[in-house]
Amino acid sequence: MYHSGGRMLAAQRQELILEQVRRDGGVRVTELVEAFAVSDMTIRRDLDALEHRGELRKVHGGAVAPEGARTEEPGFEAKSTRQSAEKHAIARAVTELVEPHSAVGLSAGTTTALVAEYLRETPGLTVITNSIHVAEVFYRSERTDQTVALTGGFRTPSDALVGPLALASVRGINLDTLVLGVHGMHERAGFTTPNLTESETNRALVESARTLVVAADHTKWETVGISTIAPLDRCDVLVTDDRLTPGAREALQDRVGRLVIADVTRETP
Fold first, then answer.
1. Exposed (0-12), middle (13-18) or buried (19+): which is 250, by Cβ within 10 Å?
2. How far apart, in whole angstroms, are the C-alpha atoms of residue 181 and residue 188?
């Protein structure tokens, strides 16, 4: 039950409605009227405002997530400008979890590409990745004691390599650590992606790893892509940033093996 509508600003109420849409995929007007103790007309005005902003789509009796929200996949360059400070803080924290002279996998993503930048200084690594950007980071390194293997496959908007060739490259490999970037994380849906074929490749990477480290900033919480990569309890270490809400921290601490909170305020990208 939410706070009484009379004591809540429209913007606060709309944000809570939007959170429920993101979490459950949709809302009903009758339920919102009861939850907020406001009129049917007030809720419909809220939904009109949220639809106008493109945050949801009105349907008979309520509203749902906008069309394509679970399958929309922004390109690498578009995502690379988002949450820059958070991603740098997370990448530094992830680097401390990777042992020198170990076999490490890095999935595609802007956060994992930053992890690669920091791992260039870690000696003796054997790196397996389906990310063009991650491979390029290591190829630019002057170290001669690192081995980097890029899978084959078809290229996605996020510059991941997927499909039968990528799967064939991953299967049979044994990794000490996999650093996995994700589109979203949710209590019920787990770690998700908007790309079905990328999910298949990522699941194969997860199966090959002794330790799964997920790198995900706070905006990924309660975001749900169409396909689940792994449940939350498969994650050995989740590295996120200190802008994650207390409620999300509590939920994640109960489900992942270990929760690491990176301090964004100390980070200067």
1. exposed
2. 18
Domain ranges of the chain: 10-71, 76-262
DSSP 244: S
Q: Look up the CATH architecture of domain 10-71.
A: Orthogonal Bundle (1.10)
Per the CB < 8 A criterion, the answer to whether 22 and 224 are in contact is: yes
Q: What fold characterizes domain 76-262?
A: Rossmann fold (3.40.50)
Each residue's pLDDT, cut to its tens digit, for the chain (269 residues) gives 455 444 578 888 988 898 888 777 788 899 999 999 999 999 999 999 888 877 788 888 888 876 555 545 444 444 444 557 899 999 999 999 999 999 999 999 999 999 999 999 999 999 999 999 999 999 998 889 999 999 999 998 778 999 999 999 999 999 999 999 998 999 999 999 888 889 999 999 999 999 999 999 998 998 888 889 999 999 999 999 999 989 999 999 999 999 999 998 765 44
